[in-house]
Amino acid sequence: MSAHDDVLRQALGTHKIDYLIKPIIFEELLKVVVPICQSLQFENQSY
Length: 47
Description:
single chain, 47 residues, mainly alpha, 2 helices, 60% helix, 0% strand
């Protein structure tokens, strides 16, 4: 999360993030967080 445009632009340049617009809606937050958690879980099972 960032309130600063320059930080957001830099992060978007990595192509590894998603973003939410304030006010954050819980359902939208879940759409971003759940896939990340699933990805991390999959990575941990690969070892």
